[in-house]
Amino acid sequence: MDVSGIAQTATTIADTGTKQAVGIAVLKKAQDIQASSAAALIEAIPPVPSAPNLPSHLGNTINTTA
User: Segment Disordered: which positions (predicted)?
Assistant: First the structure.
């Protein structure tokens, strides 16, 4: 058995696991940033003003015949 080959394989496996953990952490951080950006954009949308001069029955039905 080649002891150095086994040690090298173990080191490679450990490095791969570390790289995957770092990649997942970066992905989660990016998702958190996107979520906060999306929340900020949603909060920036101005409220829709109501139309006080229109009757309440307008906009309740859709005419599907043409």
Answer: 46-66
